[in-house]
Amino acid sequence: MEIKLDYKIDNIEKRLEIVKQICEDHEDELTPYNLEQLGNYLIFQMEKEERRKRKILTPNRMVTINKRETSFEGVASKFDKNKDGIYGIINEDKNVILSPKVSITAKDIAEIPFIAQIRESIKKLRAIPDKNYIVQQAIIDLSQTQYIIKDAYLKPIRSKNNSIAEPPVLDWCSILDFKDWNIVKAFLHNYSKLKTNSDQKIQTDMFWILQDFEKLADKALQEREPMLYDIMLYKIMNMQNKDIQKRLEQDYGRTYSVEYISSLYNNKIPKLIAAEFEKEELLYHYTFVEKGNWKKCNRCGQVKLLHSIFFSRNSGSSNNGFYSICKECRNSKKGVD
Question: CATH fold of 293-337, please?
Answer without folding.
Answer: Wheat Germ Agglutinin (Isolectin 2); domain 1 (3.30.60)
